[in-house]
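Can anyone check this?
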Amino acid sequence: MKKMSSLQSFSLDFTQCPKITDISVKKISDGLKRLTSLQIIKLKFKACEQTTDQSFSYLSEALKRLTLLKSLSLNFSWSDYRTDESLKDIIEGFKRLTFLETLDLNFVGCANITAQGLLGVTEGMKRLTSLHTLRLNFQECGINDEGMKNLNDGLKNLINLNTIYMSFHRCPITDEALKSIREGLGNLISLKAAELDLGGCRNITNQGLVSISETLKRLTGLNKISLILNSCQNIDEAGLVLSEGLKNLTSLSEIFLNLQRCNAVTDEDLKSISESFRGLHSLRSVGLDFSGCKKITNESLKAIGESLKERASLIFFSFGLSSCPEVTDEGKNDLEKSLKKIQGLKEIRVF
């Protein structure tokens, strides 16, 4: 790296490399310290079981010198050796990154990451006021309601944020966590795209959905929304609750809703969602997945078709309906026929 002092972008992928250790990361970090012109870093150590919290201490020291950095992506997923100390160390490196615009942290499957670790992330984010894009993937970690409250405190300061992705898939969170998210995200009026994955969070109920809906009501500038709530078994009236927030998003061009295997979902939910579509005149892409929702029938398909058939802006439509025993091939065919009348529609997937 000595001869690359003017390098602006640096990327390494060591996915499932069993021989990568903390010493390997130290050597990489020592090299990064010399690349003071770097603007983009992407490091992937997925399932590298020989790396521990010490690796993050080394990386932190390198980041402190990279004051021009604009984009940072770190993937240390699937390791039992990642703990809250990892996050505390890496956040220490954020202190001088005043130009950082994109932050992507992936700790999927690191079961020892808890609320305390997320507190460290929050403290670091408070300084990143130039951040435009934030991606946090803590799927199957030990994040609970306290962790989400900590996160909320950091989100409030990201006034320039326009894109956010957060995954807490199968984390032990409840409705209280979504109240915290409401307070954090609801103030980010500059947001244009938001993706939230809460799939498998079985303690979420209708009250949690109310918090999500109230958040959406505030984010009237959104162009893209993705909500993943699959296998949230304690949700009923999901469509009725969510539609109250969706119908206010008049600038929305892309929407994806995943309520797979939410057994309480009925035709009334789909009808409510379809009604919310009627006022969304800029919709270009609609993705719905209600696979495994055993109570929905052809009536849901009819309602969706009726709400979208005159949506001239629509170019993509997808509807997952596998393992829905009350939905017939005839119902699927009728939906496709209805949507094919839209001249600009380029792709229809009903499966």
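Reply from J.R.: I decoded it. The CA atoms of residues 50 and 84 lie 17 Å apart.
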